[in-house]
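Hi everyone, sorry if this is the wrong subforum. Our group has a chain we'd like a structural model of before ordering constructs, and none of us has done structure prediction before. Sequence below.
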Amino acid sequence: MAHGVKKVGSPKKPAVSYWSKDTCRCPVCKKEFQREEMLSGNGRMIAGPLTDELHRIYEPSARFGKVYPLIYAVGACPNCHTALLWNDFEELSDNDSIDRISVSRQDRMKKVNTVFPYYSLTRERTLLDSAAMYYLAILTYEKSNLELLPTIKRAILSLRLAWLCLDLDEACPGHNYKYVSDVFYRKAVFFYQQAVINETARVERSSNMNNFGPDIDKNYGWDGVVYLCALLEYKYGQREDHELRLKKLEEMKTSIARIFGFGKSTKAKPGPLLEHSRTLYDNLSAEIEDGRNFAPGGVV
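Answer:
Right subforum, don't worry. Here is the predicted structure as tokens:
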């Protein structure tokens, strides 16, 4: 090596996340584990457009590349593979739920390994690891009592997981993640609509939840839930039964019309939600009108 020339190693990748000094205690196995959180600032999150699914796209930066803020919203215990939204690690306390979650550990791991093999719950999380955590969380909430509002949480988690699988498909093409995304979109259709049914029947008061997302940047409230019920049905609902689809779209059009009735944009009804709702209303109206003039086998 020439005199005065300093050997230069590989540049260190700028940090996107850090391990919190505060550990998380799993309510199921009682073990503690580290919590990974995303760092903010310094251009890590460059907000891009908002999709019709109320999903915020973040633009890649020259320094940090593409970041996925959603992947840090769920925690998973490395010991028993219980996964929850972070706040619910303190909220889950009833013994019935804890027993069911504990007993279903192996089944949960097997199902997740089938879709997201080789995931890890101890390293700095990747897209694959976080997708596995989201699926673990959906299966964990499946075993919890209604007090934890599992239906609306599975709806939000399923929608987010559909987004993450599209990100995975872009990052790792050729591994069928687009197909997996479609599966979780259909799950989101079911859980969002079931959450509204449970709310109407007063068997699960989902409207009491503090934040409905669906993404992490903004809370679109219960109106956002109603909107997503309609949007997801329009985009991902079944199409085999023509008459049933028209009936569902009519119901969704009526629910969206109620959002318009409130008039001007307010904090409770953000402008983007009203704009997307109006577009959806027009699309629903057009498909319903076309559907009335069409019957399988020909024009009515």
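For your construct planning: The two ends are 85 Å apart (CA to CA). The first strand starts at residue 17 and ends at 19.
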